[in-house]
Amino acid sequence: MPRRGGTRAVVLTALATVVAAAVSFAAEDPQPAARPGLIKRAVTSFLADDETGDGRGVHLGPFAPRVELLSTGSGLAPMLHFWAPDIGGTPIDIHASAAYSMWGYQYYDAQVGLVPHVGKKLPRVAWGTSAPFPLSDLEKTSVVPGFDIYASARYRDYPRERFYGTGAGSSLLDRTGYRMQDGLYEGIVRFRVAPLSFMFRAGLLQTSIGPGTDSAFPDTVVSSDETTAPGVVRAPDFLHFSGGAWLELRDEPGNPHSGAAVGVAFSRLDDRSGNEFRFSRTLVDAREYASLGSNRHVVALRQVTSLEVPDAGSRVPFYLLSSLGGGNFLGGYSSSRFRDEKLLALAGEYRLEIVPKVELAFIYQAGKVFGAMSEFDLHDLLHSWGVGIRLKSLREVRLRLDVMHSVEGTRFDVAFGPSF
Description:
By secondary structure, this protein is mainly beta. It folds into two domains: about 1-45, no CATH class; about 45-415, Beta Barrel (Porin). It is built from four helices and 18 strands. The protein has helices at about 1-25, 40-45, 135-140, 220-225, and strands at about 65-70, 75-85, 95-100, 105-115, 145-165, 175-195, 195-210, 235-250, 260-270, 280-290, 295-310, 320-325, 340, 340-355, 360-370, 380-390, 395-405, 410-415.
């Protein structure tokens, strides 16, 4: 526990320094001055939209170093991208990336073909375990025009994932840990007919579940069985297909002040070696934004529904169940705190731009997981509330720190990019 506290203190101190520098930078009147210090130069670059460059940001030839957060609990992860768009004057692109986090999380991927991107900017993919697949990838590419078709391969090794049991009645005291290793191999087609984007993907998902590396908690593999954690004994290989559509009507998708966005997706996963794990998933994600007098005051709302329906006699593996808790939904609870076959989540934020490029957000979130459609209502919702500060350019939120509270305590969430 001391190590975690020390890490949190370092992160908060660094963030406080960056925020203070950003506020100072944004509040100053433009005027000739001596060359700014290192921190201010870094903040200026981080919060720029790179309108005059080629969009690649920091890079050395085809190599671009970045720092990411792979998953809640992964810690910071240095990531190296290889990015070669339009090879030899053709439309063929090659992208690959590799990351290793401070807590031993690993991520590797590669895409070849007509890969969605804008200019020479890096393509954007989602790597977290709780991202609402496939809508997360579809949203990230919703501003990319044209038609794309490409092959994609991904491998993840996430050694400190959390499991508390299934259902809304799971207890904090039941927390166990497991290691998830998976490979996803796909063919993907994506195209945009403004303001609509469509994505279709099919391939093979291979997953292995093993003992976690966090010695502070029991192993899920030892503490659970197929009754309490379906898939813990035999993690199947899946053939999967998914299709989705995203309607983009926001003024600035990365930093919205007005408009709306709606995504709908359907996925089918079939156990290759039997009928034990076969199910379908339907996802709906709706977002609305309204400015109050000016763009300095914005109200943002979000509603998400995920419905998983197993075939008769089948179940959904515990690590693929819809989940609440952590950075995506119900931030006042631990990551993936609640899991079940169905999910309803609501969020609202009042966003106040303190100075250009620095924003304060007052946050309220509610939601629940459940097993039967008869429970699809607004009763027995869990609640989370708090405040966040965001550093942003004119077009994108670059970094956010949210402090969220619930009946189970207070959590800090640090992430790159907007909340929604």
